[in-house]
Amino acid sequence: MKLTRQKHAKKNMGFYKHNFRFREPFQVLLDGTFCQAALRNKIQIREQLPGYLDGATQLCTTRCVLKELESLGKALYGAKLIAQRFQVRNCSHHKDPVSGSTCLLSMIEEGNPHHFFIATQDQDLANKVKKKAGVPLLFIIQNTMVLDKPSPKSLAFVQKLQTNELVPEHQKQSIVQLKEKEGLAKQEGEKRRKRKRAGGPNPLSCLKKKKKKTQEGQEPSAEKKKRRKRKRNRVKAEAVQSVRKNEEE
User: Fold this and answer.
1) Which of 167, 132, 170, 165 is nearest to 151 (CA)?
2) Which residues lie below 8 Å from residue 28, measured CB to CB, with a gap of 6+?
3) Sign of CA pseudo-dihedral 218, 219, 221, 222
4) What's the pLDDT tens digit per position in 203-234?
């Protein structure tokens, strides 16, 4: 059973590495429900997760998650202690904290550019995560951590990529940055502004056509040559006759 689970995890990780450019160390955002489930099932997240994902990991959370755990009191005190050991990622809710699920959803907006994993036991949050392409989902079942298979949204996204119907957001940004760096963006804008001027006639069409020698044109020259030969023959004949007359006299 453990080998089968490991094979599924390896296959799913290959999907995200190949299609969404996930790289080590893998950044995993955890909420309070996942920490509570790990505590209850005696799972050592920091020790077990790198082996399961077959790579180095960075366990992260947000200030909103920590404040939510503090507000829930003694019931989730152990989960709060676990979450406090993780790195805290900056969110956009410094002045007005929101719920942990809302905060985690905001961290994966715009195509999940930071390549976060989401680790949660909140079913409502999990369903919302599945509606976003390229976001791996982790949860705990029967005392084990499980990486969920790619969602239909992620599969559809990859299919569009393969048919060249869609360009990933990170590739669009990199293309724009490269164009700005090389100054191609300005050149393209200038080219679009330029209007085509009315061009002159094709110089080749203005050349005079060369007259082709026809067979009719060749016939007169042949006739002239024949006439010259006849004249020469007549002169020779007359000279021979005059010589004969002189001899007879």
Assistant:
1) 132
2) 49, 57, 58, 59, 60, 116, 117, 118, 119, 138
3) positive
4) 767 776 666 555 544 545 555 555 665 656 66
Rounded to whole angstroms, the Cα distance separating 211 from 6 reads 85
3-state secondary structure of 85: coil
Dihedral angle at the C-alpha atoms of 209, 214, 219, 222, nearest 10 degrees? 70
Q: How big is the CA angle at 28 (ends 24 and 29), to the nearest 5 degrees? A: 150
Is 0.85 surpassed by the pTM of this model? no
Instruction: Specify the residue for token string 């963006």.
Output: 185
Averaged pLDDT, 60-89 = 94
Q: According to the 3-state scheme, what is the secondary structure of 95-157?
A: CCCCCHHHHHHHHCCCCCCCCEEEECCCHHHHHHHHCCCCCCEEEEECCEEEECCCCHHHHHH
